[in-house]
């Protein structure tokens, strides 16, 4: 079912030859389009679908909650994943529809970082970013080298269809450093805490870590993300998937995760 074509790219700046396998994943993405990047940590090999899209930068949307968590802890704004921010209904008034739809129905309450990333609570991470401030946010982003590092559209919205942009390929490189505790300027403790709160699913055969994201960044389409890493008994894989749909309803609650899992099954990485 998977059409794989061998390809190779030369990273001129570091003079390293990177081998990329080009995948045909149309059956998983139809009727939409998007991209997928997978890094095999054991072999160092990459697999890509729609490689021309994999290198284009887009808003990270809620996948930035991974980075926001890292910076929140390392800047000492948050002590750990149990850092509580109280819900302010005046600053973040709920819409009536939110009370009946996941994960929004869980937003109207106090949250810790762990519960906020689980339920993708936007207001929590907006307040965390305000407390981090422009100076610290800029400093740490440059250390990570996260996409274009641009927070100019505002401290509490630059990642929400704002000025910050990152590609699927760059997401994978960032997550590789996180997985290996190699992010410059970040303690191993900070990186381990954030990886722990990224755990989405644990079975006897694998652990799936990740964060979804989504945003109506254009008038006629919505971007959906799922990025993270897969630990199996014998290997670890870093991945980033983005998909472009017509409306938020196309993403549903679990569509991005299920699509990624189906791809991983098609690649025989999980059952």
Strand content is 25-35%
Number of domains: 1
Q: Overall pLDDT, averaged?
A: 93
Morphology call: globular
Low-confidence stretches: 1-15
Coarse structural class: alpha+beta
Share in helix = 25-40%
CATH architecture: 3-Layer(aba) Sandwich
Largest sheet: number of strands, sense, barrel closure: 8 strands, mixed
What is the succession of H and E elements? EEHEEHHEEHHHHEEEEHH
Number of strands: 10
The helix count comes to 9
Q: What's the alpha carbon Rg, rounded to whole Å? A: 18 Å
Please state how the strands of the largest beta sheet are arranged side by side: 1-2-4-3-10-9-8-7
**What is the name of the CATH superfamily?**
DD-peptidase/beta-lactamase superfamily
What name does CATH use for the topology? Beta-lactamase
CATH class: Alpha Beta
Distance between the termini: 15 Å
A few lines on this structure:
With 271 residues, the chain is of the alpha+beta class. Helix content is 31%, strand content 25%. It has one domain (3-266): DD-peptidase/beta-lactamase superfamily (Beta-lactamase, 3-Layer(aba) Sandwich), CATH 3.40.710.10.
Report on the architecture of this protein.
The chain starts with a strand and ends in a 5-residue tail after the last helix. By secondary structure, the chain is α+β, with helices and mostly antiparallel strands. It is built from nine helices and ten strands. The strands form two sheets. It has an eight-stranded mixed beta sheet with strand order 1-2-4-3-10-9-8-7, with helices on both faces. Strands 5-6 form a two-stranded antiparallel sheet. It has one domain: Beta-lactamase, CATH 3.40.710.10.
């Amino acid at each position: 079912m998977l059409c794989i074509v061998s390809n190779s790219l030369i990273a001129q700046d570091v003079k390293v030859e990177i081998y990329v396998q080009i995948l045909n994943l149309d059956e998983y993405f139809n009727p939409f389009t998007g991209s997928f990047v997978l890094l095999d940590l054991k072999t160092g090999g990459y697999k890509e679908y729609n490689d021309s899209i994999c290198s284009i930068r887009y808003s990270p949307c809620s996948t930035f909650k991974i980075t926001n968590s890292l910076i929140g802890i390392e800047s000492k704004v948050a002590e750990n994943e149990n850092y509580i921010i109280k819900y302010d209904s005046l600053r973040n008034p709920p819409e009536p529809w939110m009370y009946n739809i996941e994960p929004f129905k869980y937003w109207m309450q106090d949250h810790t970082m762990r519960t906020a990333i689980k339920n993708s609570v936007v207001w929590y991470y907006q307040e965390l970013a305000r407390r981090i401030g422009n100076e610290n946010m800029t400093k740490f982003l440059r250390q990570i080298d996260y996409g274009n590092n641009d927070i100019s559209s505002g401290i509490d919205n630059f990642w929400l269809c704002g000025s910050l942009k990152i590609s699927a390929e760059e997401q994978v490189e960032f997550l590789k450093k996180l997985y290996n505790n190699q992010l410059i300027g970040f303690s191993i403790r900070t990186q381990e805490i954030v990886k722990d709160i990224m755990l989405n699913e644990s079975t006897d055969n694998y652990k799936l870590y990740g964060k979804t994201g989504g945003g109506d960044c254009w008038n006629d389409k919505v971007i959906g993300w799922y990025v993270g890493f897969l630990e199996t008994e014998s290997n670890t894989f870093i991945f980033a998937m983005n998909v472009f749909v017509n409306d938020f309803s196309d993403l549903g609650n679990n569509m991005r995760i299920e699509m990624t899992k189906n791809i991983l099954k098609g690649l025989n990485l999980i059952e």
